[in-house]
């Protein structure tokens, strides 16, 4: 349980669902900033908020924005912090951090009904994908108002749990039982490719919790979901997803975890162990966090590199885009963990011993 | 629960049978349920956390319930929270969040100790000859105790980095808590065997750390010194103040040597302008300082900043002790006292010397309560007191000399420990420090105490066959369950309860909210860890129904599939058939495509939905065949049709629509698509259908009346061609 120089836990006295680095353009005089979605069920009635925290002193929030219900997604763009909630609303807080200037789109028939777990920022526009099967694109109008465009209404036939932009015209979603979808707004706002994924433990279908797309390889999605499953989906071979981890999937290595994979992110810090062939076919290293408290790097045909093994779930992770060696994570036991990876010891050295 | 609806505002008032028992008046909580009286029935049940669910129902057909808009009943949630956490009621209040941090932190240590215990037990069972390694076990418990102790705070390190005030008498430290004091006390007596020989000195240290907590019982050395500290800054001549000397004697009597030396150096005779005329006085003060700082102490080491000379072994100590006492006596009999002009200094210093000589009268006067007197005995009168019996005897004597004015959880615990009475220790822990301490401290009590071990593990019929240990763990688990943030750690404790833990764990898991998919997955993860497959199936079914009812059909089907719930999937399939049966020819079928996609390629798991999948394939293929009119596509469509007709899961009411859709295929030219056997099968099905028509439960479909005859005709002509083609 003890903290080490490279990993510190900061207790926060309420449940932390998501934590994100703020882009450094938003850095104030108090140093690097974090955004966290917190939920406190012990107060009556239960309160949910977005906190803006200084990395040096996460105990005292600098700014706090109240949410109507528990946050189901949190993302930061250089200009806006956005959170969606379990009642289907979306809240946009400008980076001036003036909570009076926050814009809210309330949940309901005109927007989402129920939790919105898919949320991502792509330049000027936000995509939201909810468990009600609706997909919206939210953009800013010229006069400072927000414009909501309904891309799709699945009428509850399929529910989405994750969304990620690939380009201003394309995004990917994932959900319960329906795998991953690739949407192209140029082709009539429709799903242009679909993949059910590969799931471990002999199950046919699972729940996708997180999708990430590498900024420089926009045709590859990495997907994390149920039963420790992580797979990559290359649009060029849409029927052949590549297993990265999962029970009984990649034969010679133990799966990195057997429980829910809550979040996956392409790890720009870890060098691929096979630099020569990494040119185009290999999937780049992926960071994941899970319900059983594992924070690890997984790579195609490699032994996973475990960075943390906590006693409680890690609900959310984020890699600082400016300092990719620094990772922040939201721990189930009411604390934020900050992991500083050693900049000198590259992960490459740690993995020189390969399994024959 | 005895309760009755009142006529008044519709509030529920708890109804107590026996008034006048001196019980506090019951708390009344008005509930706004919006159901007009009279009330027919009220159900009260626990929801998650502190929430109470109250369901209020009207009689189904009570008079006056005319309008449809009358509410027939409602369920309201009442939060009973507000203060009552499982934390301890001590002077240094631990707030709820801090208590939760301690609770979280103690889970890994507890789980590790339990798994080690089980491993040792397994090893012992395997090799009966070798007794479980006792020494090893003791080390494990000590490690556990240290881990938990570190969660409760660290008294040795300063609260924050700060420059020390040169005039500070008491060091600024992290505020001690009663919880930590109790934990350390139990560790000292029950676990730490290594330091058993130096027990008296450890108790002196313990008192030094936690003396401030005893202030609730009356004055303490700590309170005397902190009061003097406030006064000190404004004092001109410090040695004229009686509180100065009182503070000094109190600090010396409990062995705070560094404080004594520090305070003595504030004596006026040290000031440069007074040195000349108070030379003798200053010499006496300095002589006492030297004696205080060289006092022999029976302990292995001293933390930095503490004074005295360490003696690790008894002979060393006796030698040093004799020598030191000789020096004290010599100073007391010195002729210099007559030359000391300052009366108060002379009396004060002589008092300090008498304390060092172990004069019981002066010690009793200097100390503030029996615990301090107890500690001073170890320092100045009986440094070799060992064993519980001796200590208990001494404690009794101290209590007689200084009767306690009030009670404090710590003193009660102290007496319980000394009287070698684990029952009392457990009761004191329960009453004063809450279920967290009891649950975790039981491991300390049983570390090396066979009597406590038997007492805690004996199964008791009056407790329903569970042991005391299990009872306390269950109580703690209940406290954890009552908070929606800590319920997730309760399974660790429930799983260590062999008799009732698993049953309660199942109830706990089944009671978790299922509205949020993420929370459901967290609950299912616990089911997976404890291999509770039945429970997880139930949770998935409930989640499926919830999502289905709330219009999230996809999520509903997903959960039913995960639960392998054939019954519900079949019912969903029936619902879908109703829809499709009505609109079989138009393309509203497209609406269901998403759902079919969700069901995945493995139709086996989808129960009755399997039909829909095949039906979709058939419709698609038929469309292609009719558009392209190619023989290959038509043949494929016929294959799909035959599969559908052969499959028992295809509902009978779809037979005719299927055949009617395929009429054009039967008339396919130039060659018939079906052979004799296939056509015969279809004709057989048609006859079966005509028979079924006579039954009352037959559901007719929306096909034109000539549909049957046109199908018959087409099949007949196909049969004719097929017979001709048949070689």
UniProtKB/TrEMBL annotation, chain A:
It is found in: Nucleus. Its main location: nucleus. Keywords: Nucleus, Repeat, WD repeat. One of its GO terms (cellular component) is nuclear pore outer ring. InterPro entries: WD40/YVTN_repeat-like_dom_sf (IPR015943), WD40_repeat_dom_sf (IPR036322). This is Nuclear pore complex protein NUP43. It comes from Paspalum notatum var. saurae.
From TrEMBL, chain B:
Keywords: Membrane, mRNA transport, Nuclear pore complex, Nucleus, Protein transport, Translocation, Transport. The keyword Metal-binding does not apply. It is found in: Nucleus, Nuclear pore complex. One of its GO terms (cellular component) is nuclear membrane. InterPro entries: Nucleoporin_Nup85. Pfam families: Nucleopor_Nup85. GO terms for molecular function: structural constituent of nuclear pore. Its main location: nucleus. GO terms for biological process: mRNA export from nucleus; positive regulation of DNA-templated transcription; protein import into nucleus. Component of the nuclear pore complex (NPC). Belongs to the nucleoporin Nup85 family. Functions as a component of the nuclear pore complex (NPC). This is Nuclear pore complex protein Nup85. It comes from Paspalum notatum var. saurae.
